[in-house]
Amino acid sequence: MIEDHLRKLKLRAELSEAECRAITGLFVETRRARAHETLIREGQELSHSLLLVEGWLGRAKDLRRGQRGILEVHVPGDFADLHGFTLKQLDHDVIALADSKVAIAPHDRIRALLERFPRLARLYWLMTNIDAAIQREWTLSLARRPALARVAHLFCELFVRLSTIERAAPDGFDFPLSQSQLSECVGLTPVHVNRTLQDLRSQELIRLESRRLTILDRDRLFALAEFDPGYLYLRRLV
Amino acid sequence: MIEDHLRKLKLRAELSEAECRAITGLFVETRRARAHETLIREGQELSHSLLLVEGWLGRAKDLRRGQRGILEVHVPGDFADLHGFTLKQLDHDVIALADSKVAIAPHDRIRALLERFPRLARLYWLMTNIDAAIQREWTLSLARRPALARVAHLFCELFVRLSTIERAAPDGFDFPLSQSQLSECVGLTPVHVNRTLQDLRSQELIRLESRRLTILDRDRLFALAEFDPGYLYLRRLV
DNA sequence: CGCGGTGTTGAGACCTGTCAAGACGTGTGG
DNA sequence: CCACACGTCTTGACAGGTCTCAACACCGCG
């Protein structure tokens, strides 16, 4: 059930059988969430963390005037709020972007695990840093990439992240977000995202229909987005 | 020399005398850097981390066409690249935004410290998470706040962060960045930042002259920026 | 059958960027 | 002491990217 998570960890560190079993033992139950459901609210006291098993989650923050930003998206194998373990409460909401399944890890079990395996504490710290690197790249996108490159860059990133958990085909992946949700990820309006997608389609870079994204020309898409996967740190580090 | 750093940590955790001494023992030497100097380059192999003692540093990433984004700024007491300890190399540059002084902590000393004081490992993980929360707020700013609120929000954040290390007066602080550097922080052009600052001045919210920022009406500035310091986690957490 | 969410299109407004020029202060070399 | 280069701040005119508002088509679902 949490193979995706172990796969993600093993990309960066060697894991022993005992460690894998201990990590698996973190989770007490699973629950389902429907698209648009809010799983965790900003400021809420937390006693457990959520691992995404199936579906898509996002971190969201609201402003006045109904404006919302989605600040990061999670794919299966990601902890959505491991930072809640140290922060005790979050500065953002965690929302389901599509129908999803999450596994619940109580904080006291996480604490016990990290005390027993200090090496894993180091590894999860590393994963936090990789999360932050992704966040930085999103920040750069918003600061400096125009709409077209910004959307393209998100597709490139998701393609690579999904590939590492073997949820991407060579030429694309299932992408269940609506254009409206996508607009919240890239800091644009839904109308402009629609026009940007048409632009990407007319340049024969992608297809996007019935919630499946097909990448027609990966090299040109990567180039347009100035995508360099270095910031994902897809290599052994521990 | 590293009192600012200890002050920052003590805001979030109780520290024993032994822990303080051990942290102080992390640093082998200091060095100076001139404004605009690049201290660490993206991709460079790292064997030590830098604590900012005096001055201003920033994390920067470049794109083609000479576009650059500054993704986070550091004030005294901040580790600029503690994530380099786990990541081994960075996905961004670390640059001096003003003349600065940094203290150098070799990674093997950091490793020894965290093995001896596992509680500090937890604390530095927490600090990483607070860093990430700041990054999220910047992302939100870029995604959803218009130029005026974006600049205002940065000033609010810096005012609070500098206050916690007692480097802000009740009504402002020294702010050595040029308008061009500021524009790289907020994802605008220098020309537009200039006009935005004039707007803030004409609304009698701030003064900014000879590298000193004066906040004339804190409440209105906070309201304009929709600034809520919750994301800085200025409270005991460990 | 009607409804809400989604995707699409058009026209116009607004925010931000581009390009160009000049003012000012500072440091440097003659 | 002056001349000069350089970075910074400022201003204007204009271009361009993105947003707003409005309308309509489509679809799945109750």
Compact overview of the structure:
By secondary structure, chain A is an alpha+beta fold. Chain A has nine helices and ten strands.
Descriptive overview:
Chain A contains 9 helices and 10 strands. With about 240 residues, the first copy, chain A, is an alpha+beta fold. In chain A, the strands form 3 sheets. Chain A has a 4-stranded antiparallel beta sheet with strand order 2-6-4-5. In chain A, strand 4 and strand 5 form a beta hairpin. In chain A, helix 7 crosses helix 8. The radius of gyration of chain A is 18 Å and the shape is globular. Chain A starts with a helix and ends in a 13-residue tail after the last helix. The mean pLDDT of chain A is about 95. Chains A and B meet through strand 5, helix 3 and helix 5 of A and strand 5, helix 3 and helix 5 of B. Chain A binds a DNA duplex (30 and 30 nucleotides) through helix 8.
Topology at a glance:
Two copies of one chain form a homodimer.
Chain A: H1 3-12, H2 17-24, E1 29-33, E2 38-40, E3 48-54, E4 57-62, E5 68-74, H3 83-87, E6 93-96, E7 100-106, H4 107-116, H5 118-144, H6 147-164, E8 172-174, H7 179-186, H8 190-202, E9 206-209, E10 212-215, H9 218-225
Antiparallel strand pairs in A: 1-7, 2-6, 3-7, 4-5, 4-6, 8-10, 9-10
Helix pairs in contact in A: 4-5, 6-8, 6-9, 7-8
Chain A binds a DNA duplex (30 and 30 nucleotides) through residues 146-147, 178-180, 188-192, 194-195, 197-198.
Note the beta-strand portion of chain A. Answer: 15-25%
What profile does the largest beta sheet of chain A have?
4 strands, antiparallel
Range of helix content of chain A? 40-55%
Secondary-structure element order of chain A, N to C:
HHEEEEEHEEHHHEHHEEH
- Chain pair forming the biggest interface: A-B, 49 and 49 residues
Classification by helices and strands of chain A: alpha+beta
User: What radius of gyration of chain A results from the CA coordinates?
Assistant: 18 Å
**Taking all residues together, what is the mean pLDDT of chain A?**
96
Counting copies of identical and different chains, the oligomeric state is homodimer
Instruction: Tell me how many strands of chain A there are.
Output: 10
Through-space gap between termini of chain A: 24 Å
Task: Catalogue the unreliable spans of chain A.
Answer: none
